[in-house]
Amino acid sequence: MDLLVAGVREALRLLVAGDREVFAILWLSLQVSGLATLLSLALGIPAGAALALLRFPGRTLVVSAVNAGMGLPPVVVGLFVTLLLWRSGPLGAWEILYTPAAIVLAQAVIAAPIVMGITLAAVQNVPEKFRLQLLGLGASRTQMVGVVLHEARLPMLAAVMAGFGGIISEIGASMMVGGNIKGQTRTLTTAMVLETGKGNFEVAIALSLLLLALVFGVNWTLTAVQQRRVW
Amino acid sequence: MARVAAALLLVVLALLPAAAQPPSSRTVILSTTTSTQDSSLLDVLVPMFERQTGFTLKTVPVGTGQALALAARGEADVVLVHAPSLEKKYVEEGKLSNRRLVMVNDFVVVGPARDPAGVRGETHAVAALAKIAASGSRFVSRGDKSGTHVLEQSLWKQAGATPAAPWYIESGQGMGATLTLADDRQAYTLSDRGTYLAFGRRVALAILVEGDRALLNVYAVLEVNPANGPRVNSAGGRAFADFMLAPGTQALIKTFGVERFGQPLFVPIAGKTDSDL
Predict the structure, then answer these.
(1) Chain A residue closest in CA terms to B15
(2) CATH topology for B106-215?
(3) Can you give the pTM of this predicted structure?
């Protein structure tokens, strides 16, 4: 109990004092996971929409794969991305292992199926009659897809929240492909593991409170947008 | 919406290079053990090395076994580890070279204060472990091929004991987590002194055996053979190894930890050989 109180106090102190290292870690986590979320949206929305609207042989298999991918273990992604990015691996020439770019890549791979799966469900929820009506009214196929995605935008915000929430709190992949290098690839979660390993529980608690606050802040903003239906 | 997605992709592609790193010849990858990281020593040494040499250092803290394996594949340029027997094996195979001693500290056998196996005051770690095995007292092992685990296994072998469940528990985690587990299970464990000191306030375990020569924890730097893989930065690896042995670095190591623990965590030993210890 004393530890918990000390942790909360330490968190407040770090925040109030504007501890430069903690803020740098916070900023890096936000940047990396934000960028990875954007990347997963860029991949997941078109792919999810296509899966929802197209009919082709083996579609059920692909949809099942996407749904299974929503639970893709980060540590598995971390392992495979590491092997790909190794100096001796197929993407070794990129030389991005142990850099923030590697974490962005791994996290995007984790979030993409989540975005894809939720987009798929959201688009399929738009009644088929509505789509046919649009085409009947003379909309081109591209215009129809645009309108359907616009209709599904609110449930799709859930995709952003789920994707971002999943990867900002992810540890396995960040640790493996980032290496937890101080000042370079140390994120909130890897710093937390390190501080726990060092026995600095107060700092670890402080970092976890910051992570919770960050996740809550981002979700609050997105939920506000979603519930007000401002766009 | 498709246009939005395309725009997002463009933004991401534009931002990615910003997150990339300087050219490879200026980047050195150090694979090392978790204990050097957990003790915060590297947090102090890395910026110093980067300032002095202009290289960018990437530290990969893993167990000693993995650190050596990575280097043998050419995934690292230099290693800082603490498992002499394993290190020598890699040197013999030609994967690593120029093994130089950097610093030393020691391991301690810790356990519950009531000491069910009666090892307190034992001067030989091997004898202490034999007693633990004979009495079937709980012992928590790292079980992760770390330098600590490698030493522990060799001690069991010398004691002629085959540790086994249920009294032998493998944590598969770092030293800190292992100490916490041992404390919870009222078990013995082998720990480096630095981590034990860092966790001293949190666990009720007591030091029961210390000062045995077999418990010396010797850290060495080894350079990576450029033939191990593409893109090995030998010049950078050599620069880090030289840096660890430089008088300024050794002087820093000598006093590191005094502020926090009231005693230094490592003793610098540049220039010494195994037989000097």
Answers:
(1) A35
(2) D-Maltodextrin-Binding Protein; domain 2 (3.40.190)
(3) 0.80
